[in-house]
Amino acid sequence: KQEVTQIPAALSVPEGENLVLNCSFTDSAIYNLQWFRQDPGKGLTSLLLIQSSQREQTSGRLNASLDKSSGRSTLYIAASQPGDSATYLCAVNQAGTALIFGKGTTLSVSS
Amino acid sequence: DADVTQTPRNRITKTGKRIMLECSQTKGHDRMYWYRQDPGLGLRLIYYSFDVKDINKGEISDGYSVSRQAQAKFSLSLESAIPNQTALYFCATSDTSGFPSTDTQYFGPGTRLTVL
């Protein structure tokens, strides 16, 4: 059974710092991996999707990498801002099923 | 207008009542999903549908049923609500058409359900 783990569960950083969020999964047979952002009490916003054949994807200050063989993905946030404060969720898609989520990393960026 | 809408956004009900949560999408996607989110447990899949005639159980389908009335509509029912079904419920859609297909999932705003 696929399991997705996100470390750390919570992270506090000062504004301007670069940071890395980690995601690991137990079964490397994935179709893709998706990173989401969730604000308190709100829905999920898709940030980046990496196909199983890809190594990384970039969007603005965000860069996500995927190492399928080792079962790891990282989300790199450059020059963090207070508006980046949210919970970040990693989810893997195994072909023919739906997403399996990690429990998230709650990020707090102080000004 | 939002591409994935959920109604109601908030609902308080009593134990034993039957309730329905509705999801509609204007994205034209073929796949639809229902998840629930609980503090400390993350998001878990309840049911998913890959087209109107295809319904599949997810990890935690007991106590729930679904109906895919049309490609754009997917409803979730709690036949007899119980307090441990109190949670935040999300509907999502994805699209497997096109080449290459990414199957990116797009989420609705959620329904906060409280069962007393």
Number of distinct beta strands of chain A: 11
**Cα distance spanning the termini of chain B:** 33 Å
Low-confidence regions of chain B = none
How many strands, which pairing sense, and closed or not: the largest β-sheet of chain B? 7 strands, mixed
Which terms would index this structure?
heterodimer, A: mainly beta, six-stranded mixed beta sheet, B: 116 residues, mainly beta, four-stranded antiparallel beta sheet, 11 strands, 0% helix
What do these coordinates show?
The complex is a heterodimer of chains A (111) and B (116). Chain A is built from no helices and 11 strands. Chain A has strands spanning 4-7, 10-14, 19-25, 32-38, 44-51, 56-59, 62-67, 72-77, 86-93, 99-101, 105-110. Chain B is mainly β and 116 residues long. In chain B, a hairpin with a 3-residue loop joins strand 4 (31-38) and strand 5 (42-51). In chain B, the strands form 2 sheets. In chain B, strands 2, 4, 5, 6, 9, 10 and 11 form a 7-stranded mixed beta sheet that branches. Chain B has strands at 4-7, 10-13, 19-25, 31-38, 42-51, 54-57, 64-70, 73-78, 87-94, 105-107, 111-115. Classes of the chains: A mainly beta (111), B mainly beta (116). At the A-B interface, strand 4, strand 5, strand 9 and strand 10 of A face strand 5, strand 9 and strand 10 of B.
Topology at a glance:
The complex is a heterodimer of chains A (111) and B (116).
Chain A: E1 4-7, E2 10-14, E3 19-25, E4 32-38, E5 44-51, E6 56-59, E7 62-67, E8 72-77, E9 86-93, E10 99-101, E11 105-110
Parallel strand pairs in A: 2-11
Antiparallel strand pairs in A: 1-3, 3-8, 4-5, 4-9, 6-7, 7-8, 9-10, 9-11
Chain B: E1 4-7, E2 10-13, E3 19-25, E4 31-38, E5 42-51, E6 54-57, E7 64-70, E8 73-78, E9 87-94, E10 105-107, E11 111-115
Parallel strand pairs in B: 2-11
Antiparallel strand pairs in B: 1-3, 3-8, 4-5, 4-9, 5-6, 7-8, 9-10, 9-11
